[in-house]
Design goal:
The chain is mostly beta strands. The protein contains 1 helix and 7 strands.
Amino acid sequence: MTEEKIIIGTEPIKLLITSEPRVIYTRRGYQAVVSVFHKKKRREGYIFLSASSLANTLESLRNENDGKMSGLEFWIRKKSAEKMSPYIIEE
């Protein structure tokens, strides 16, 4: 895969989802991802979808978008710097 993983920290970043979910092979097995465009850095990459705080919110947004993830645009950040901290998503 030529795309790079987009790292999400405590500072909000604006992402645009540019693909539907797909599976990639990682050292931890197969993982669901979507391609995204990082608006500020003007860079393409991908994010993992496994965190429930991310998946639950994206599922709601997907349902409002005719069942598609492509085209969803939102601000995302982690609640804290802790590794398992939940994601916060705002439109």
